[in-house]
Amino acid sequence: MISNIFEFLKFKDRKVASTVCWSWYNASIQPRFLKKVVICLKGINKMYDVLNIYTKSLLPFFAFRILEIGIEDLGNAECSTNQNCWDWVYTIWPLLAPKVIYLEFIESIELRDDILPALLNVTQQLKGLKIRDVGYCRGKILYEVNRIQSLEELELQYTPALDVDDKTKMLGIIPKTLRKLCVKSVPKECEFVINDLINVIKFCSSHLKSVELFEVGQIYEIMESMVNLNMNLKKFGLHMVDHMDCDRAPEIILLLLKTQWPLVDLKLCAYSFTYDHVFAITNTFKDLEKLSVSGLSERAFETMAGIDGSSFEALSRLTNSISSLTKLKSLYIGIER
């Protein structure tokens, strides 16, 4: 009964109510109330003591966001390499790992080469993994990570300083059943990473439901490799900033149209699009519920808004095509917000 009442409470109110008694606490930690609860861990010196508290927790699972590892200790040159700073990885973390289902690293500065493999190799119940600034994790770290069979969502954001010869490899950790993949900030010069990404998409093609590529080079080659895959994508995002990819936007759109994916959520961004692009998209993907097509310049917006030479007929045709999307709930066309 009390758990049904908790459904109507906000998180902060449930948290207060959970302190009344053990019965109410147990009700408050049911999985349905913890789906959006992420525990933030910041710094490194007190990590052991903080995590030790959670080893005694009755929570059925944990979602951790690890922030700024090493930042507090940048003044101490020995901290990032001192074994004592990382004792928690080999002592406390293995006790928590079986209950960790979500893990996110943000600004993981000076993450020693062996740390990420040590964390992930014992965290085999992970469903979601996000790593930002992958380039700061020195060495071929992902080569040393075992495949995480339970992984459903993966997001990797590479550092702008990514070495073009970087051999970081995703495929080794990803199971065939991956459902969501998001990759950000991979320059076209990093051919090894891009080829690895293509192999990942092929490997997981039968299970992937969502693919998002933001500021990833060689988009045409990636799209070309996806056209003939038997994919059932529901969500697709493409953010093109490389001039070569933007120049080939019409060809990339044509490849997208050939896929015939059952998309319900589509987000595209490049320097410019035309009415014909948007018309073709709305005329092909009839199940769309969310559509965003944005340009990176005012010129792109002017073209799409019907100014500067765009014909009334083109605008009318596009309007009718959009109106035919009976499931559409969200629409944005214009300059990137």
TrEMBL record:
Annotated InterPro entries: F-box-like_dom_sf (IPR036047), F-box_dom (IPR001810), LRR_dom_sf (IPR032675)
Domain F-box residues, every copy: 2-35
Stored Gene3D superfamilies: 1.20.1280.50, Ribonuclease Inhibitor
Name recorded for this polypeptide: F-box domain-containing protein
Source organism: Aphis craccivora (Cowpea aphid)
